[in-house]
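Batch manifest, entry 17 of 40.
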Amino acid sequence: MSTSIAFIINESEISAGTRGASLGPGAMRVVDHNRKQFLFGKYPNTFIETENHLLDQPTDLVWGKRADGLAKVYERVANAVKESREKFDFTLVVAADHGSAGGTIAGLKMANPDKRLGVLWIDAHGDMHTPYTTPSGNMHGMPLATALNEDNLESKQNDPKEETVRYWNQMKNIGGIAPKIEADDLAFIGLRDLETPEIEYMDRKGIKNIAVEELREVGVDAIIERLEKKFENCDEIYLSFDVDSMDPKIVSHGTGTPVDNGLSPEESQKLLKHFAGHPKVKCIEFVEVNPCLDEKINRMAEVAYDLMKDVIETVENKA
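Output type: structure tokens
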């Protein structure tokens, strides 16, 4: 029996510091069309309504910029992912910025509230800030904290407005489940741009990062083996792939916050294909392609598309 697959397309970019990520999913669709693969036409597509119009206005929510809009997007993403998870074997989320990935995690948990959810976060950034710790107020640096139901007051640096805190708590509690994941069930690959509050939180919780150098030293297979052991007690695994996990000098700078010394496309492919074929993985998300910043025309979208195509082909071949 073939595996049923569905796309969720989310063009929300209100939580990033730079505009243009809303064009990322479309840039990948352009690659799909130009190569005459028509993958997006092969499976059902759900489009998330955005609040991107808020970017045309200033926000006074300094430590949670446009949290009012993001809270709405979280709800929409969570409900769409929950419905897709209940209806299809595998959901592929193609999103703009990383800010709403907490909504994806919420939807997976809402679909199976009694199941233990593991998260593999492949990214240059930790995305564990809160309105109390963020240096920028950009909420694409906060999705994991919402999933962890974490304020990280131990590392507090800011005094967010009451309105910001209200929306923040709303996002943490979507579905009436908080936390959605436990720190023990979170794994990172490729982090290399962390702020002190995130480092302090990881140290307190014993969360490890698998650095690019370590991955190359021991090999991707050894890292996969380590992750298999880490997630062995989880019922389900979600993989979030930020394209800034890859080295911009190898791929392109077509992402909002590129960081040097990242993964190669080949290393990314090996990780993604393994977990796409994993029986516990029901959802993979691709984020942060920004064609406006791409000095190589549409190269980042092309690489991300190739990786997504590998994921789909692997899922299609699942028993």
